Structures are given as C-alpha cells and as structure tokens.
C-alpha cells in the first residue's frame, strides 16, 4: 500500500494528466444514445409516457403567460368601463389559468413518478448486467488494479447515473418550452434573445470548466478512494475486529484514513470554493443583462408602444427563458460530466475476456480416456516478472489421484488454476486426451472440473445454499445436498444448527450462526460432492481440520470418487501418501514425481520432509 502522502501527490499529478478537454466532454455525449437505448429497453411504455407528459408540460408556461397577459389587459379594460361591467370573459380567463396550474401540478407529479420508477428499474437492470458481465471476465482481470478501479467506477454508475435520465429528459423539455417562449419574444424584439444569450453563456463556460475539474479529481482519486473504503471496512468490520483489538490497530488505521481523507478534502474544498466564487460572479452578469432588458420593456410600455398585459407577458417570458436557458446550460455541463462517467460503465461492459472458447469448441470427452498432459508449461502472473511455474511436463492419468506437495509459494495453486483454465499458460501447453485444452468448450470444462480452493468463499447464505453452490442447478434437490453433506462430514454439523439446512451461516445477517474454521471447511467440501465432475481438485480445503478429521475426509474422498481423476494439495504428508502418485514442486519446477514408496526409495527432498514430519508426529 502507498503512503497517503505519496498517494495524494500521485493523484493530484494524475488529475492534471487526466484533465479532460471540453471537446472530450462534448464527445462523451455520444454515450447518450446508447444510454437511452438501455432506458428504452428497460421499459418502453414508461419511456413513452414520460416523453408525452413532458411534451405537454413544455407548452404550459407559454399558455399561462399568455392567459396572464389577457387577464391583465381585460382588467385594465374593465377599469375604464363605467356602469354595468361584463365579467364573464375575465372569469373564463381565470378559470383557464387555474386549470393550467392544476394540470401542471398533476403532470409534474406524473413525471416524478415515472422518473423514479424507470430509474429504479434501470438501476436494477444495469446491476444485473454488471454481475453477469463480471462473471464472463477472466480471473486474471480481477487481479489487475486498473481493472478493479474500472469495476469500482462502473459499480457506482449503476446507482448514480439514473439521475442522468431525468436530466436529459428535462433538458429536452426545457428546450421545447424555450422554443414556445422564443416565438413570443421574437415577435416583439429579436434583440432580446441576443441579450439573453450574452447573459447566460459566461455562466455556462464556468460550469463546464468546473465540472471537468471535478471529474478529473474524482477519477484520479479512484485508487485512493478504494484504499479509503478498504480502511473504513477493516477499521469497522466483524471480520477484522479481533485482530484490530489484539494488535491495537485502531489508532493506526484512523490516522492513515484521516491523512488520506484530509488531503482529498483539501483538494475538493479548493475546487468547490473556486466554483462558488466564479459561479456567483458570472450569474450576477446574467442578472445585469436581465434588468437591462426589463428597463427597455418598461420604457416601451410607458411610451404606449405596448400594453401593460404585453409588458407582463414579455417580462415573464424573458425571466422564464433566462431561468430555463441558465438551467439548460448548467445542466448541459452536468450531462456532459455524467456522460463521461457513463463512459466508465460502457468501458467495463465492453471489456472482453482473454480466455475465450474456440469457434468450434469440442465437448470434454466422457469419460476422459488418457488424462491431462502438461508440455513444458510455464506461467507468469501479469503483474510479475517471476515465473510462478516453469518447465512443467507430466501426465495426469485418467482416474489417477495425484497429490501436489511443496513449500509455500512453490506453485501448487497456480498449477491447478492452469488445469481448470482459469489462467492460460504463458508458454507450453496443456493437453486433454491429446488435444489442447484451448480447443474445448470453456463452459463444459468448468462443468467437468470441480475445485475447492483453500480460500473458498464463506457465503453468508443458508447451509443448504452453501452446499448447492457446488452445482447451483440442483439448488432445490435436498436429497443431493444432504447426501453431499454426509459425504463431507458436514451433515452432523448442520443437524446441530437451530434451523438445520435452512440456517443462515456467518454473522453478517440477523439470525446468522457462525461456524468454526473446520466446520466451514466441511460445508465447503460438500460442494465437491454436489458436482458430477470428472476432475476434482481439493486445494488444501482441509487445513483447518484436525489431523484425524483430515485423514478421514481424504479416506472417504478417495473411496467416494473412485474412478474419477483428482488432484489434492495438502501439507500433511500422512494424507498425501494416500494418493497414487505425488508431484513435488520446488520454486515452480517439478522436482520429484512418483508413488509414496518410490519417492521414499529415491531418498530425495520428499523423503527428507516426510521423515521430518513423521518425527514431529511421534
Ligand atoms: N495473483 C497473483 N499475482 C501475482 N503473483 C502471484 C499471484 N498468486 C500467486 N503468485 C505468486 O506465484 C507463486 C506461486 O504461488 P502459488 O499460490 O501457486 O503457491 P502455492 O504452492 O499454492 O503456495 P501455498 O502453499 O502457500 O498455498 C508465488 O511466488 C506467489 O507469490
């Protein structure tokens, strides 16, 4: 992790590099049609309803101003009448204005309602899309920090970008309203429109500039914000509370958080203050222009060139248009800014996985005949210069139980991830029944390989769901779930829970029950039995079990999966010796391969470590 100071410095210099020009901001508007296509696909009827309501709404201001003008002219006319006055036209006008006001209120409510319903649907739909797309991407992509930042920004978009929809629709609505009002103003004096533009353009440019700065700052701070989120999480989470207390870390975490967040606050504050100062100066300019035009209209009225009703109509139109134009321009830069953020969402959704199935994929042989062959396989993690494994050549026979042993970091987990095609070899190739693994259908391969990792996920869901995860299509098959739990020794653990198989596990949710490390492992192991896979991989999911339980688990495992191919990773040699053959890895290289007896006879590294551990047990 970077120090906060270094992080903040890096971020502010990145903010400058990242500075988006006005042109780029306008360019980002190209995302809007795509955005509206998504909204349209979310609900056609609501989108049409929304547009229609807004169209009607945009004609109302002009109509109200005009009725208002007629009312005033009528009143003035009536003042001059002596004797009996006929008020019927006046009442009609007042009724019309009242009707328009009520209609306007109802339409406003309707628009808010549709905006919020459509917004919710849109947000739900994009969240689902995000989850589905993330599942399509490669594991290696998730381990890349730049990718992670993109994911984080995209995730934010699904919730916050909903407002963009109402912004764009309001923008269109206001433009139509201005169109209506402009007709009235132009009829009187076209120069008034020009004054209006002079009044709002400076504010617009100011807004655009500051929006772009805000975007750059927020974007360049994504990694630091992620660090802040992380610090906030580890500083106040049930999972970390134990270590935070025993190591007395809260002061350390709080000061780290404070340093970083203060730096962001300072940068953000200076931007907000400058924005406020410039914003008020530029909008005062607009107010001046408005009063200039107002004085002009007043003189015209006094000179008798226009009626008092027309004065109120023009002054109202002018004031309305100024407000609308100002709104449109401010909103324009907000929309452009939102569209820039939207780019992150689309960028993420357009990311392509590197590991893809071939055009005409092969199905995995049923049953596998020969097994898997590693041919001089080497692999480097994308962010590392070091070979995690290299020059691996061996044959994993169909039906064989192979144990992988080696010290921490020797490359055992990497090897099994290559086998499951979670990663692609950097060099060499892996064959299945003599054909490159890349030729096979990826989904079929994933179905035929079951892996339980050492860092398996403790899903905060029911015990039943936690097991069904091994074969999610069987989530309703209680017999199969219970059968798997019996095989992995999880059944007695679950039977003891208050709600049995329906018990929510973990502490995150109400009524959740936490299990011990070993109990969790038994539940996770049941996932392997759920799956009807031809290759089963257990990557040390038994480390938290006591020696006797682990021995029993593996003994059952070998019996229960008889005939299937399996790869086991364990640091316990008493377990490892149960395998048909043992592959000893050292610094990513294959050092020894053979049965327990053969390796002991070789008297190499395996024999040395086995003897050491055996002595420890005695
Ligand atoms: N996601 C990753 N990015 C970069 N390097 C990694 C990554 N995962 C593992 N490595 C590196 O690759 C090497 C092999 O790691 P691997 O996890 O395969 O070891 P292992 O034998 O399974 O270790 P252990 O017994 O501790 O589980 C190590 O040097 C490790 O630092």
TrEMBL record:
<dbReference type="InterPro" id="IPR011527">
    <property type="entry name" value="ABC1_TM_dom"/>
</dbReference>
<keyword id="KW-0813">Transport</keyword>
<feature type="transmembrane region" description="Helical">
    <location>
        <begin position="175"/>
        <end position="201"/>
    </location>
</feature>
<keyword id="KW-0067">ATP-binding</keyword>
<keyword id="KW-0547">Nucleotide-binding</keyword>
<dbReference type="InterPro" id="IPR036640">
    <property type="entry name" value="ABC1_TM_sf"/>
</dbReference>
<keyword id="KW-0812">Transmembrane</keyword>
<keyword id="KW-1133">Transmembrane helix</keyword>
<dbReference type="GO" id="GO:0015421">
    <property type="term" value="F:ABC-type oligopeptide transporter activity"/>
</dbReference>
<dbReference type="InterPro" id="IPR003593">
    <property type="entry name" value="AAA+_ATPase"/>
</dbReference>
<feature type="transmembrane region" description="Helical">
    <location>
        <begin position="288"/>
        <end position="315"/>
    </location>
</feature>
<dbReference type="InterPro" id="IPR017871">
    <property type="entry name" value="ABC_transporter-like_CS"/>
</dbReference>
<keyword id="KW-0472">Membrane</keyword>
<protein>
    <submittedName>
        <fullName>ATP-binding cassette, subfamily B</fullName>
    </submittedName>
</protein>
<dbReference type="InterPro" id="IPR027417">
    <property type="entry name" value="P-loop_NTPase"/>
</dbReference>
<keyword id="KW-1003">Cell membrane</keyword>
<dbReference type="InterPro" id="IPR003439">
    <property type="entry name" value="ABC_transporter-like_ATP-bd"/>
</dbReference>
<feature type="domain" description="ABC transporter">
    <location>
        <begin position="372"/>
        <end position="612"/>
    </location>
</feature>
<dbReference type="Pfam" id="PF00005">
    <property type="entry name" value="ABC_tran"/>
</dbReference>
<dbReference type="GO" id="GO:0005886">
    <property type="term" value="C:plasma membrane"/>
</dbReference>
<dbReference type="GO" id="GO:0016887">
    <property type="term" value="F:ATP hydrolysis activity"/>
</dbReference>
<dbReference type="InterPro" id="IPR039421">
    <property type="entry name" value="Type_1_exporter"/>
</dbReference>
<dbReference type="GO" id="GO:0005524">
    <property type="term" value="F:ATP binding"/>
</dbReference>
<feature type="domain" description="ABC transmembrane type-1">
    <location>
        <begin position="51"/>
        <end position="337"/>
    </location>
</feature>
<feature type="region of interest" description="Disordered">
    <location>
        <begin position="1"/>
        <end position="21"/>
    </location>
</feature>
């Amino acid at each position: 992790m970077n120090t906060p100071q270094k992080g903040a410095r890096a971020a502010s210099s990145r903010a400058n590099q990242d500075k988006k020009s006005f042109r780029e901001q306008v360019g980002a508007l190209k995302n809007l049609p795509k955005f509206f296509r998504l909204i349209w696909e979310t609900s056609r009827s609501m989108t049409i309803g929304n547009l229609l309501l807004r169209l009607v709404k945009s004609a109302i201001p002009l109509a109200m101003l005009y009725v208002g003008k007629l009312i005033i002219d009528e009143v003035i006319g009536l003042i001059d009448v002596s004797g009996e006055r006929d008020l019927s036209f006046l009442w009609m006008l007042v009724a019309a204005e009242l009707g328009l006001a009520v209609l306007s209120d109802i339409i406003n409510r309707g628009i808010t309602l549709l905006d919020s319903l459509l917004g919710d649907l849109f947000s739900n739909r994009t969240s689902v899309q995000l989850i589905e797309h993330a599942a399509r991407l490669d594991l290696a992509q998730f381990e890349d920090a730049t990718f992670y930042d993109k994911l984080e920004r995209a995730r934010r978009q699904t919730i916050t970008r909903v407002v963009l929809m109402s912004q764009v629709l309001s923008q269109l609505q206001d433009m139509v309203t201005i169109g209506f009002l402009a007709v009235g103003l132009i009829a009187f004096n076209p120069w008034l429109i020009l004054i209006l533009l002079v009044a709002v353009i400076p504010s617009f440019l100011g807004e655009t500039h500051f929006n772009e700065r805000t975007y750059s700052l927020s974007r360049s701070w994504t990694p630091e914000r992620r660090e802040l989120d992380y610090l906030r999480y580890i500083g106040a989470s049930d999972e970390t509370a134990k270590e935070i207390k025993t190591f007395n870390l809260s002061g350390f975490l709080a000061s780290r958080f404070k340093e970083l967040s203060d730096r962001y606050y300072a940068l953000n504050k200076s931007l907000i203050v400058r924005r406020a100062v410039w914003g008020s100066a530029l909008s005062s300019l607009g107010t001046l222009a408005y009063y200039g035009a107002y004085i002009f209209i007043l003189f015209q009225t006094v000179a008798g060139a226009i009626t008092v009703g027309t004065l109120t109509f023009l002054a109202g139109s002018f004031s309305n248009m100024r407000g609308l134009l100002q709104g449109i321009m401010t909103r324009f830069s907000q929309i452009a800014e939102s569209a820039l953020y939207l780019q992150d969402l689309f960028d993420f959704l357009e990311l392509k996985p590197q590991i893809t199935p071939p055009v005409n994929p092969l199905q995995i042989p049923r049953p596998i005949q020969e097994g898997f062959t590693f041919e001089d396989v080497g692999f480097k993690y994308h962010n590392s210069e070091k070979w995690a494994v290299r020059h691996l050549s061996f044959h994993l026979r169909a039906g064989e139980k192979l144990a992988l042993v080696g010290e921490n970091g020797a490359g055992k987990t990497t090897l099994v991830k290559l086998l499951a095609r979670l990663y692609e070899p950097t060099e060499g190739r892996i064959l299945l029944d003599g054909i490159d693994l890349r030729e096979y259908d990826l989904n079929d391969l994933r179905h035929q390989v079951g892996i339980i990792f050492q860092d398996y996920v403790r899903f905060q869901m029911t015990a039943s769901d936690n097991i069904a995860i091994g074969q999610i299509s069987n989530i309703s098959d209680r017999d199969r779930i219970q059968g798997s739990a019996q095989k992995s020794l999880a059944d007695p653990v679950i039977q003891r829970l208050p709600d049995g198989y329906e018990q929510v596990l973990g502490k995150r949710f109400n009524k959740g029950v936490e299990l011990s490390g070993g109990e969790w492992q038994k539940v996770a192991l049941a996932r392997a039995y759920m799956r009807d896979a031809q290759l089963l991989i257990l990557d040390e999911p038994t480390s938290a079990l006591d020696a006797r339980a682990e021995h029993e688990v593996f003994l059952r495992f070998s019996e229960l999966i008889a005939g299937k191919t399996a790869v086991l990773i364990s640091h316990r040699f008493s377990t490892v010796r149960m395998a048909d053959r043992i592959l000893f890895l050292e610094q990513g290289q294959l050092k020894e391969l053979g049965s327990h007896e053969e390796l002991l006879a070789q008297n190499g590294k395996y024999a040395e470590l086995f003897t050491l551990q055996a002595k420890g047990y005695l």
